[in-house]
């Protein structure tokens, strides 16, 4: 942690004492990140064999959303020093003095525990256990252990964001099989090129905050090569659900085309001397995952 980070963490006493608004607490939940988490959880829930009562399905998705948001709130509490340094995050509620750090921590812990308990009591304890593991992994493994220590932080830590399809699947079936594992792998291997694209054009932010993201530690050229490697690995992983009966022909075609375009994005990033291609790849990466999951959901709904 840098001296600048400590200095930037200080907020006016008056601001820090003001009660946070509803909007401030919603911001703690990282709603934009939560939306993709919930959608991936929905994909696991829909494509899983069997049925779940609509009310319980809504409860399961609510628990996934609240659990992810709670982990995000704890992440903001722990990272409040570097958030104050980084341009991308300095407007968050804690660095702005809109929410007291202790209140943010309590908010996150209570919601995390509540989401796991509700999932267990209302749906099943297998789904609840996976939700609990996902939250703990994001907070303790990624946020507190890996993020500030290794350039592989997002590679290993990305597993936290890959759990929602498994949670949705387990909510329906009460177990975990090859289907949700494949969806886990899809998101796991998607995460590094997605975040490294962001890190390329935000490397100054991470450098000032002392976060060892790959572009900061290994340089842009090495990062771009790693991004290409991961997009190449992602192609067979993305189409694997079709061969195991999770996705149909539409998914196979869509996953192939979308993955080839992802590889093309990575090639363009390697050839680009500016950060324009990296910004485009970051935007496409979100669309890529959304469309893959949407095709899976659509196939199941029209079957």
TrEMBL record:
<dbReference type="InterPro" id="IPR044878">
    <property type="entry name" value="UbiA_sf"/>
</dbReference>
<dbReference type="InterPro" id="IPR030470">
    <property type="entry name" value="UbiA_prenylTrfase_CS"/>
</dbReference>
<keyword id="KW-0812">Transmembrane</keyword>
<feature type="transmembrane region" description="Helical">
    <location>
        <begin position="153"/>
        <end position="172"/>
    </location>
</feature>
<feature type="transmembrane region" description="Helical">
    <location>
        <begin position="250"/>
        <end position="269"/>
    </location>
</feature>
<feature type="transmembrane region" description="Helical">
    <location>
        <begin position="227"/>
        <end position="244"/>
    </location>
</feature>
<protein>
    <recommendedName>
        <fullName>Protoheme IX farnesyltransferase</fullName>
        <ecNumber>2.5.1.141</ecNumber>
    </recommendedName>
</protein>
<dbReference type="GO" id="GO:0005886">
    <property type="term" value="C:plasma membrane"/>
</dbReference>
<feature type="transmembrane region" description="Helical">
    <location>
        <begin position="33"/>
        <end position="52"/>
    </location>
</feature>
<keyword id="KW-0350">Heme biosynthesis</keyword>
<dbReference type="Pfam" id="PF01040">
    <property type="entry name" value="UbiA"/>
</dbReference>
<comment type="pathway">
    <text>Porphyrin-containing compound metabolism; heme O biosynthesis; heme O from protoheme: step 1/1.</text>
</comment>
<feature type="transmembrane region" description="Helical">
    <location>
        <begin position="281"/>
        <end position="298"/>
    </location>
</feature>
<dbReference type="GO" id="GO:0048034">
    <property type="term" value="P:heme O biosynthetic process"/>
</dbReference>
<keyword id="KW-0808">Transferase</keyword>
<keyword id="KW-1133">Transmembrane helix</keyword>
<feature type="transmembrane region" description="Helical">
    <location>
        <begin position="58"/>
        <end position="78"/>
    </location>
</feature>
<keyword id="KW-1003">Cell membrane</keyword>
<dbReference type="GO" id="GO:0008495">
    <property type="term" value="F:protoheme IX farnesyltransferase activity"/>
</dbReference>
<dbReference type="InterPro" id="IPR000537">
    <property type="entry name" value="UbiA_prenyltransferase"/>
</dbReference>
<comment type="function">
    <text>Converts heme B (protoheme IX) to heme O by substitution of the vinyl group on carbon 2 of heme B porphyrin ring with a hydroxyethyl farnesyl side group.</text>
</comment>
<feature type="transmembrane region" description="Helical">
    <location>
        <begin position="125"/>
        <end position="146"/>
    </location>
</feature>
<feature type="transmembrane region" description="Helical">
    <location>
        <begin position="178"/>
        <end position="201"/>
    </location>
</feature>
<keyword id="KW-0472">Membrane</keyword>
<comment type="similarity">
    <text>Belongs to the UbiA prenyltransferase family. Protoheme IX farnesyltransferase subfamily.</text>
</comment>
<feature type="transmembrane region" description="Helical">
    <location>
        <begin position="99"/>
        <end position="119"/>
    </location>
</feature>
<dbReference type="InterPro" id="IPR006369">
    <property type="entry name" value="Protohaem_IX_farnesylTrfase"/>
</dbReference>
């Amino acid at each position: 942690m840098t001296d600048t980070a400590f200095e930037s963490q200080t907020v006016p006493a008056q601001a820090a004492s003001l009660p946070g608004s509803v909007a401030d607490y919603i911001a703690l939940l990282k709603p934009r990140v939560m939306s993709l988490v919930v959608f991936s959880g929905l994909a696991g829930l829909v494509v899983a064999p069997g049925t779940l009562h609509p009310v319980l399905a809504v409860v399961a998705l609510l628990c996934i959303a609240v659990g992810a948001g709670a982990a995000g709130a704890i992440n903001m509490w722990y990272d409040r020093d570097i958030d104050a340094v980084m341009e991308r995050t300095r407007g968050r509620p804690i660095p702005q003095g809109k929410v007291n750090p202790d209140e943010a921590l309590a908010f996150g812990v209570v919601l995390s525990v509540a989401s796991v308990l509700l999932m267990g009591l209302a749906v099943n304890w297998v789904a609840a256990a996976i939700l609990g593991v996902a939250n703990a992994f994001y907070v303790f493994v990624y946020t507190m252990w890996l993020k500030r220590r290794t350039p592989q932080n997002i590679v290993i830590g990305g597993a936290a964001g890959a759990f929602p399809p498994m949670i949705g699947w387990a909510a329906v079936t009460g177990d975990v099989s090859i289907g949700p594992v494949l969806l886990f792998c899809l998101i796991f291997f998607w995460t590094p090129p997605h975040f490294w694209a962001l890190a390329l054009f935000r490397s100054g932010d991470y450098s000032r905050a002392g976060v060892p993201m790959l572009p900061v530690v290994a340089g842009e050229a090495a990062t771009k090569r790693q991004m290409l490697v991961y997009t190449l690995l992602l192609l067979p992983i993305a189409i694997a659900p079709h061969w195991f009966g999770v996705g149909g022909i539409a998914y196979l075609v869509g996953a192939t085309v979308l993955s080839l375009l992802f590889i093309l994005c990575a090639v363009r990033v390697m050839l680009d001397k500016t950060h324009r291609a990296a910004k485009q790849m970051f935007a496409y990466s979100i669309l890529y995952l959304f469309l893959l999951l949407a095709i899976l959901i659509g196939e199941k709904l029209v079957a």
